[in-house]
Queue: 4 jobs
Job 1
Amino acid sequence: MSRQYNPAVSAYKRMDLDSLPEDKMPEKDNSKGLLSRATKSSKDNTGLDYSNPLVRVAKQMQIIRKYRDDINGSK
Amino acid sequence: MEVSNEISFDAPIPGMSLTAELGGRPWQNKPKYSTVDETIDYYMERMSSEEFMVQLADILESGVPVTTLANTIQMASVMDGIHTIDVGMLVLPMLMEMMMMIGDSAGIEYDKGLEDPKKGEIRDSLFAKLINKYEKKVKSVDLDSVSEEVIEETNKEEVKKPSGLMARRT
């Protein structure tokens, strides 16, 4: 099998999933007053910008990685 | 940068892009899925089918690297006009992770394709260079004179007797 330049190699290696913050349960917003925030910010409490497609891909990958780790029993 | 002088036969021939009407190819039209999320959903659905999983397991078992397979699938989707090439590039790592998960769950020993297989391998050209160098060195040496010198040296060593305090007295 020929191994010419494959963008998948660099794309995968650059995905630093270990430094990606874990998801936390969203805090319940009890305020229902007129001054409570009506719209949600695109950034969550971990500081990740979900409007960035790469972040969303990384999050998906993180979930799949967790499943893989469960299968392999490494974590 | 080193430029290869070899002629590449894989390259498109001049004017090849003009052999069809503009917009006549799927990748020249609006893609079916324009966002990363839609594309991920598309792949997730496709890869969740049992038929795909079985086929993937067989291919991985036959030794095809995950990187090659993921790139091929992504490229095929671009050519079919399912998503754009930049969305494909973004989705590539997720595709690989998914494939590796399928491989892990099937208990297959697969090649990720992340390591260079030729890394650390000694090139044939280097071997040939060393052999050539050695042959030249051997030819330049006068073997007759060397053999005489060696015989003389060995005779001298034989004559030398141990003379230390602990040497055996005969």
Note: Chain A touches chain B at residues 1, 3, 6-9, 11-13, 15, 53-54, 56-57, 60-61, 64-65, 67-68, 71-72 (CB under 8 Å).
Job 2
Amino acid sequence: MAESGLLQIRDPRKPHGKPVGIDLGTTHSLVAYIDGGGRAQTVPLEGDSPLMPSVVHYLEDGSTLVGRAARAKLATHPHETIVSVKRFMGKGPNDPEVRRLGHYRFAPAQPGDAVVRFDVGCKWVSPVEVSAEILKWARRKAEAYLDQPVGAAVITVPAYFDDAQRQATKDAGRLAGLEVLRLLNEPTAAAVAYGLDRRARGTFAIYDLGGGTFDVSILELVEGVFEVRSTAGDSSLGGDDFDRALAQALLEQISAALGRDLRQDPFAVQAALAAARDAKHALSEAEKAVAVVALPERTVEVEVTRPQFESLVVDLVRRTALACRRALRDAELEPHQIDGVVLVGGSTRVPLVRQFVREMFGGKEPLGDIDPDRVVAIGAAIQAENLAGESRDDLLLLDVIPLSLGVETMGGVVEKIIHRNTTIPTSAAQIFTTFADGQTAMDIHVVQGERELASDCRSLARFRLDGIPPMPANMGRVQVTFSVDADGILSVSAKELTTGVEQSITVKPSHGLTEEEVERMLLESLEHAEEDVATRLLVEARIEAQRVLHDLHKALAESADLLLEGEREAIARAEQALREAMEGTDHHRIEEAIADLDRASTDFARRRMEKALREALTGRSVQEIE
Amino acid sequence: MADHFEILGIPRGFRVDERDLETRYRELSRLFHPDRHAGRSAAERRAALEKMVQINEAYRTLREPVRRAAYLLSLRGLELGETDGSKHLPPDFLMEVMERREAFEEARVRGDRERVRALARQAHREREEALAALAGAFDRGDDREAASLVSKLRYLDRFLAEIRAWEDRVFEEEHG
């Protein structure tokens, strides 16, 4: 009976709906998917264009407009319209980003506030919520176009995003009702789109200058395995900064001409930014352009030549050299050892950027024949399909952690535990000793960054390990283990070694939303108010239970010989309990039963992996003998 | 638990066929990477993840010769520790280290980049020589000599890292 129940499952690994890749960009967002013929396609999100402006406008009743419709509101409603929200992901209210040129209005910072919030008139919203609106609209438009539900997605992030920024992006995905299959680094996604297309082999540099972020990654491609050797970047440098530099110059010139200081006027700032963006685009083709600044009372035209524009942005472009150089060094490569350079991001259309990249990588002409705006989304779609089980057997991405992880020690100095450019998933442990007699607690401050002092690094989390038995100084020993998963997200556990007192935390970044906040938002969001949350959770729990049972039976059929005495009985008991829970309607009970079965089969699963490893190695030696 | 050589299935020793090492790493990654187990039950995903973490750690250790040598010595009970290896070093090398540091310090103060580059070139040459000698020491089974060479190589690597850090700072000041 139990067996026939299993056969009814169509394919337990398949998440419901079409898997998609989403490029959640600073200026634009895109959705891509794999069509029936196995080709990657982008979804037209705005008319015929796949580029949906990453702009969210809040109406008085709290509902939103996203994309071009929202951007059209910028000139008249600068405070209620959020652009470039990606720059604020994972940022605290006191971050320097908050004070840069822009037209945002921020909610007054509350003491202990971990995240910055925009005041959009009707309410205060965090960057995670704003990003979730973009994702929800992208998802809806994709569903309408594909005429099928979209449930699971790979969302791309800049390779140089830290833990807080990654966590914030993942939270935004959840809030938009998506199953986030993976956070994929943008340059890696671009490499996938290029590499698979060309069956390439060799060492490539990916130069990715997006709207608000800059990444450079160096990868080695061999037979479908994309091994990232190093990555570096600047998570607050992008084409937006070109616009700001030009807008600043325009405002100064116009203010002088009109005899009135417009540099802080939100309407004028907005108009100048829009004019600067158009002029920048025009200057990629033409030698000169006219910036049309539509001030509320009159329109001002300013002529800009390409050399003038280049003199404004040349320092920004040169700043990317730091990261390029570091990436090369970390990969232990010289520029001439790079076989090709791939350009990603709309800002790489600027001729000065192309010229710079050519010079940086030994004079090689960079590749840009896949549309630099679409290439990231396409790579993400390929990986989404891969993870959803439509596996391309030859594709595997081995990525790295962009910034070192460590803990603060005596004197505020950072002890690095995982170094930057270590391949993920990874884990590492370090032992710390007590410094005072009778010390019973230890504070652990987790930081990310390359600087020596913790105060110069990004603070990720603080937690306290209690229950150390009183001992003389230096006798209490605490082992702190850092684990980074394939999304680049960290979890930390700590253990007192003499007693075994253990604490495990998922690092919820200091500058992030708490789990409770995310759950509350999920419940509040319109998307979920429309449907019965409990029913949805129950359905999901049952699907997960079927998936677990399916895998377990397959494992038992394959490796019954690996079961220890009594183990089969323990697993069978847990399985029976799960089946009973599945008959009921309490999703908590099903989840608990899944967890119990999981515990009962953990050692068995480990032995299976060990055996698989041995077989892999043996198979190899047999081949060698032949 | 299996050691790093066993995990990657290569013969235990200092001389490693790098191509073979890379191939094996890729093959095992294809089997155990979390992406390959995306839709499986939590127990299976965790077991694969643990294995992949071990594979990554083994590869990170064995692909880099100095780390590989230190690891090999630790398997034979000769713990060098991460930093303190000076007890394995001959006194004349320690003298050289001091002189080299002083030369770098002087060049740095004067901003003499050419001199710094020359010091780096020399350190690189010595590094190559020490690596060749290290392979010889392992071939002869001379662990004490190998330990001394590992300590020397670590000194040279730290010295080169300091030079790189200085060059990066100079570069940053010019491009910042």
Note: Chain B touches chain A at residues 7, 9, 22, 24, 26-36, 38-44, 46-53, 56-57, 59-60, 164, 168, 171-172, 175-176 (CB under 8 Å).
Job 3
Amino acid sequence: MIKSYKFRRHLANGLIYLLLAVLGIIWISPFVYLVLHSFRAEGLIAVPYLIPHEWTFQNYIDLFTGSGGTASINFPRWFLNTFVVACFSCVISTISVLAVSYTFSRLRFKARKKFMNVGMILGMFPGFMTMIAIYYLLKAMGLTQTLVALVICYSCGAGLGFQISKGFFDTIPRALDEAATIDGATKNQIFWKIILPMSKPIVVYTVLTSFIGPWTDFILAKIIMGDSLDNYTVAIGLQKMLANDFINTYYKQFLAGSVVVALPITILFLKMQKYYVEGVTAGGVKG
Amino acid sequence: MKMKRILAVLLAGMMTATAFAGCGGDTSSAASDNASDASSSTELQVKDSIVDYSYFGDEDNVTLKVWAPDKAVNLVKQQVEDFKKAYSEKTFNIDVVAQGESDAATQILNDASVAADVFSFPSDQLNKLVDADVIAKVAFVDTVKDENSADTVTAGTIKDTLYAYPETNDNGYYLVYDNSVVTADDVKTLEGTLEACKKAGKKFIMDCGDGFYACTFAFTAGAKIDGLEEDGETQKFVDYDEDEAVDTLMAFAKLIKDYKGTFQSLNVKQVASGFSSGTCAAGVDGSWDTEVNKTALGDKFGAAKLPTINVNGTDKQLVSMFGYKYIGVNGSSKYPATSQILALYLSGEKCQKERAEQLGWGPSNLKVQEDSVVTESAALQAIKEQSENACVQVNISSTFWSPMGNLGNKLVADAWDASDKDATKKLLQDTISNVRDEG
Amino acid sequence: MTYVEYKQLNPFQRFAHNFKKFIVSIPNALARFFKTIGRGIVNFFKAIGKGFKNYGVTFTKGDWATKLSYLIFGIGDIHKGKYYKGILYFLSEVFYILYMVFFGWTFLSKFDTLGTVKTREVIDPGQIIARKVYGDNSMLILLYSVLSIVITVIIFAIYISNIKDAYRHQIMRANGQKPTSLKTDAKEFLDGKYHVTLLSFPVLMIGIFNVLPLIFMILIAFTSYDKTHLPPGTLFTWVGFDNFSSLFDVVNNSKKATTFLELTKWTLLWAVIATFTNYILGMVVALMINKKGIKFKGLWRTLFVIAIAVPQFVSLLLMNQMLQSNGAINVLLSHLTGSNVEIQWLNSSVFMARATVVIVNLWVGIPYTILSMSGILMNIPEDLYESARIDGASPFKTFTKITLPYMIFVTTPQLITQFVGNINNFNVIYLLTGGGPSTENFYQAGYTDILVTWLFNLTIGSQDYGLAAAIGILVFIVCATLSLIIYNNSKSMKDEEAFS
């Protein structure tokens, strides 16, 4: 009896291992394909086999030195641009999100519920409908075709994404605040000295999500940048490499560029996974 | 090889003698009449695309931006330098920026005030630009009419106004093939081409999802375009025999079914890619890819006009779309006079010849068309030959492209029943009515 | 039904019961929703009435400085010794007047027509070549008018608060109190009014870059802004509800109306399927990874997480290439089967394309579900499973009887967010299929297009801004109503204070 129970459990676990392995392969295979073909030497776009026949670093070298192509592709510059924009917008976004969610979680004031409801639905209007308006507002401020404009665009709406971190703050016992208030702490001090130090997971979660944004947007950024090639981000740049003028020359460099963009984000994600899960778990249940 | 060259020269001679037998044939000859009339009475002083300083007015210390396709940036930069030398009394600050021609209009419509002052674009975008009133009229109409082929001038004219400087006369597609697989005899018929490809286990690639290529199906079937209706928006078609048209479409669909696995509808850029990886033996591609196709095929490069297709026993020539490229002047340019003078210069004989030599672009300039650069290029000759059997891209409504793309998609889809006459008839009717925006 | 009766039902009956309850409660929830809105409107007008009354009363009771505050901002405060606030009030008035004189009014004055001056050509003296002179730019007129109206509303609020403040200080002086100092006020902003400090920056940003464009786009839906009315070259003007009626007008404009109807159906179907497949399958994978006795949990999770870390547009463009008829998937299948496989995944059969999109969406979405579920799954009380095991329940039964109900109960808000997210899931459709397979029956759309991608085609592709804005508004109304109702009725919203 005991034996058969054990056997069944082993069988079940074996099946699960098998299933996980198959799924794991399916999930990882596009990424593997991407990496393999970024080292491909032969062919232009498609090749009728899965493993490259000739291997080379040339795609990466060309990508960073700009040789083997034309002057309008400047990947190192775009990478730097994106990194700078991501850093600034990530700082501003994080501050906004934390400020808004702390306010809604901890402070009680008139119209709080109304603010929350409005905040929730504002983000639901299809984004690119408003792009043309955003473009001309930025233009009126003389900011179009600059990186500042991108920082503003990526961080301006951040405050609307307060749900998850508000959910997280909600799980921190209120008794802490009350004790601190009795000790004479102001709300400001409570925020900085008590709540924030306890919120590492949600801070990491917010930083991570807002840092990734600029690396992936290719529509708004293109509209704002127009023909200003020097101010492109990697997302528009990579998209450009697939345009009809470029794809034959740049497809393999596109693959290499994608790997270069994906690597840091992957490493960041894997390092910070624990916090991400903690943040999203606590926030998700309550949010 | 020698035989071929002689043939090419002969053909070129014939070509210049005959007007394009495209769909807008009548209008084009009318325009050339006009052109000669107007030029006799003109007072313009233009020599070698250089004008008198008085045309600048009081513009000096001019800052301009020029858009050129990525491949042409370096050449255009060189030409801009020559421009500066030609007008040495004025100071210029001219910036050449890479910008794909395919979305030039989109970029300008987004925000004309930050777009280039002088930009190049393909003829299908002209309607959009004129509708939005963002492109300036051509200032040197008579010179342009004198120097360029009548069709390019006609296609740049909307409601009797010439809006752009002709730049190329080659925006059409032809059959590119690997002559080690497909012989010059095979490429005469679509059946022969496909059979040769199939035997070698290689592909034939055509971008059937793009209306620019897919309209070949409709045109070959007889549904050729014929300018716009009087409202200036609705596309007009020539009268055609619907039964015959349906038969032709069914013949296409059947052929595609028969050669499933050989006939592939993929993005046009996959042609060069297929040549380079050895999977593709023939494809429908245009002058913009001639260089990359030549590099991929080397000595095996072959070019010919589109083949014929057998419909109920008769061989029908495939009819293609044929367009031009233009240089336009942005209506919101701060220096309109200088922009016009620069556009005139860049579209002039010298610059067109340089582009033909260095980029393989077919010129619209009549003199350069006679030049050996053009007459000895197999690709340009194939385009010219095909242009005899082409609808000229004049006055195309913006609703033309996506229904045609849909027609192509449907015919190549596995789910399409090639023997369903009623469905084919309905597809044709729907396509025409969608192009005419009657929905 | 009593609790005991409920407990005796089998899971399917329970589900049916809950489902029925949910459906039955929808009208109520809707009614409550509209009642709330109605009450809101009534309260709003009541408040305006009260405001007018106070406005008059304060004027008659005010001293000269308070009365002067009705014309010049901040005089009352300055007179009572509250200098910094008075000066701020005054500066806001100066700013407003300057803004209106030099900028705002030029646009606002044309708001009713959206401009009448047409583009023309002139030849300047000294020139030979003509130059284009652009007339009014309808789009800028509309945009800056909206900006001016918003600023006016804000200034009006400041104006009212200036009067109130002047009167308050007048009464304080009458009672012998002194106005508070700047230092005290600043301290208050770090404590009692801390929410003002924290919210002001985010609200300002959201106001300028979210709310303002939103109002602008809503107004666009009532204009003729399309490819033949395109600033700066040409003008557009107000057309009332024309854009909306063309979406519903089955008789005269059948193509747009059919497209709208069909795409709405597919969008909802897509959102439901995409949300639930991701949710349930993601949960199954998460359960497998987190099962006791399964080793290398980190490795398994990492395999899935990598799919998140690759930027979505890269992985989707890659998928698109791989799914072409000469792409990697067909190559792989050819290798496996030994014959030449050329399946047209994305552009032949409607069902095939839609199924492919749903499956690729699983690839994109499941890793997120795994990450957000893992923690919650481990929080399910162990004794629930223990008792199920003693009863001899099968894993499938444990899943449907314990895990699923628990999870749905706990994560309803997340589920709704994902549902709304899928309605607006632009990337997967746009990058993967581009809307195809195409069809002659739709206006500017294909069979896998959802409303947002259609909207994108209409704006970027064919410059039909008016129509697109109308669709945007309709999508917005559906999403907003749905989420407001469900959030405000959800458990977590109702017992918000549970943990505190």
Note: The mean pLDDT of chain A is 86.
Job 4
Amino acid sequence: MKRYSQTTGEVGESSDLSPWKTADALDLVYVGYGLLIVVLVLVSYVLGAFTWLPYDPEQIRVDLLNAPPGSAGHLLGTDFLGRDILSRLIVGIQAYFLPGLLAIVISLLLGTTLGALAGYRSGEVETLVTYFNNLVDSFPRLVLILLVIAAFKPGIYYIMVVVGVTGVPAVASLIAGKIEFLGQKNFIEAAHVLGLPSRVILLKHILWHHCMPLLVIQATIGMGEAILIETSLSYLGFGVQEPTPSWGNMVQAGANYFFQGKFWPSTAPALSILFTILGFHLLGDGLNGILEGSAGK
Amino acid sequence: MIKPRTILEVVDLRKHYRQRAGIFPALQWRERFIPAVDGVSFCLEEHETVGLVGESGCGKTTIGRTILRLIPATSGRIVFDDHDITAMSARELRPLRSQMQMIFQDPDASLNPKMRVRDILKEAITTHHRLSDGEVARRIGELLDQVNLKASKLSNFPRELAGGEKRRVGIARALAVGAHFIVADEPTSALDVSIQAQVVNLLRDLQRQLGLSYLFISHDLEVVQLISRRVAVMYLGKIVEMGLADRIARAARHPYTHLLWSALVEGQSKEASHAPLNTRTGAWEPFDFERPVSGCRFAPRCPVYEARGRPAVCTDAATEPQLHDIGGRHYVACHFPV
Amino acid sequence: MGAPLLEIENLRTYFHSRSKRAFIRAVDGVTMAIARGKTLSVVGESGSGKSVTALSIMGLLDAGPGVISGKITFRTDGGERNLLHDLEHYVTLGEQDGRIMEVSKDEAGWRKQVERIMAEVRGKEIAMIFQNPKSALNPFVTVGHQITEAIRLHTPTKHPREAKERSLYWLERVKMDSPRLRFDNYPYGLSGGMCQRAMIAMALSSEPALLIADEPTTGLDATIQSTIVGLLAELKSELGIATLLISHDIRVVSRLADDVAVMYGGTVVEYGPAPEILGAGFGLKHPYTAALLASRPSVQNVQENGGLPAIDGEVPDPIEVPRGCRFYARCNRVTDGIRDRCERREPELKEVTPGHQVRCWLYLD
């Protein structure tokens, strides 16, 4: 049964309600959850940067090895060296937050530039960009990263540069596609006829007005990917090394004790990874539903 | 009497589109191209409206865009306000752009859907002149008056406006930069009949008030005839007949013009209904290039050609009919004008 | 003469706008009838609801809530059917001040019901042709195959070779040139006019009792339009098929229609024989019809100063439906005596001459 109703009955100059008011409830929930996660991450980042932590994340307490949550003031318990898990989780964010931002910035800036070049000036430039895209795309991402690590043994920031570059084709093709689609529309021609310089048309009419939601969504997806890669690498032992905490290496460290019944040291970071990445993706999804949904009408 | 100034002169304008060839045609030395505009010449005087009429594929829209330098011309000359703009750089062209504008066919696509009406007009006003906020507001008010648009529409987005209102925003935008020459690309086509009359009246009033000159492109012969002083009829990239609107309406000499008019008349004329089972239109069909048309392009559909037993002079490339003056600035490109 | 072939009574089709949280009253109480072998033309502009009416008959509406009330009686030799049978069981309406403000509809259930009713009707007894023929045909299938498919689906001819013969027969009937050649063409290889002929062939191949033509000539070049109109006129007289022609083009309507229904803002404002409604002079016409005919950009309507007598204002908004007469805001024939009523109450349809009805307070005294 579907129900429809109308509240006003009089003739008037009704204008469209803002997309936020008419959004699907589910999308709003997604966005709400996603924002919550983002806030938590930001707060944790700040806490970690200033080391305003409940406990010293590197302090070993031999008497409290693998203590369950709630024991002696450790909200989430301790790990195999007696270190407070909560504090380590908070600090673990340092491992991926800034590097992740770097990856996103690279993907978006480079991707937008290449996409704009390809979409706006077709011909040789477009072909070149397409070749570059295909080249980068054809590498499996994780393998490429492992190769880089094996060859150069770089820090996480350099790894994130690679992550950023491998993310460029996706952004570039989205932008290029959008530009091609819009290029058919007369209002771009109208802007030309007005005498607006191409630069302005591209930046204002195309990118700002039409590509912003796209880019925001790509940013959220990018962050989710960055987190996943960083934690995967740390789990495998390639990223952040002990004793510096990363969610990935925390999972790895606790893995040995998992089957001894002490599942907490592994599960806490694993769930954090899950819920955080979920948060970013849902944020992107929800925003997409709200912002693009209204454009469709 | 002072002779009116010619503000636009188009000389032998051509626009060829290269056709994406398949594998085999590419092996041939001759390049395949679609001559969308194939040698068009005319001029337009100040305060005049010249109508450009034809069916889909005749090239009229392409001419409009080429004249405004939205598309580069393949060859020929475009002289606007005594400036040869055919190959001008974008920078040199910029100041001239404020003098020539376009009204687009699709009212939905020609306005940026994410910009409010106020912003659209403001952008147009400030592109070429620096004005204070107060002056901009005053100019916007002036424009709204001229196109008869309510001030309450300023904060609306294009999708919240009705068809006629969107069209009027487009017209206001063209006026905002201060243009005195406007290319109107099918301005009445996407509108309901009752709104078409409004727009036609508006365009006429504006022409009188502001001394505008129009190139009025349309497939609707009746609207063109109402608003234009001179009319050019196009077919497959060429002008086949050109003259005073009255003459084209009442005393057309080219067989194609006759065909267009008869399609409108409320009882189908005999020639059209018994035309040879020729359902080919004026559009460039995919198989055209297998049988290149030489000579007069209208010959395959021309009832006069049939009636006269297919004279060779019509299809011989060397004797392709050219526009010639048959008196009173009435030009026809036909060997056997009706 | 007998009872009409298709009779629509008080049809209401509403949609709902999420962004405005209001109903789009696309068809708001429409009554009309098509007699056997005759052509009824529905004339109107955007927002008049003419296309939605056709889609409502065929059950081709997707958006919700869709058809919410009415009765469509379809009378063939096989009997009489209500194409909106049992609609009341699926829909509950809530009114306020005489206006529908709430709709509850079992959409999934109604969709199934429509499929049950229309499965044997669509394509077989009622066929439809659309605007923009190139996009209405399947671009991945040859034209001939599409017609053959329709024949095998809707007629007793099931054998592929026989069906192909029938297709070619119909392609010839619609005056397609080189039918055998065109049979194997894809829609992109044909011009707009040829695609429209193919679509007409497809529609008529099942020899339906009623043909619904939704803006069949819009989007075609002027010279082609007139040949298609000529074709429809010929087929009409040869086959004796009843037609519901939807169009905004008065020229096309005047050549094909026996009866005309003028729609404005979702309702029928004038209904009657074509010569009376479309003929010259104000006569006993609805002010909208008169103004529409007078405002056409045509050489006959040009006034002394070279302008056209235009109708003020914009086409009606199906969301903001006024209380009184829907045309009141743009009407130039309101007199002081009726102004009050025009503003407050919607007039009923009244017969002004035999067979000719007008919905206007000018005639309701």
Note: Chain C has a mean pLDDT of 88.
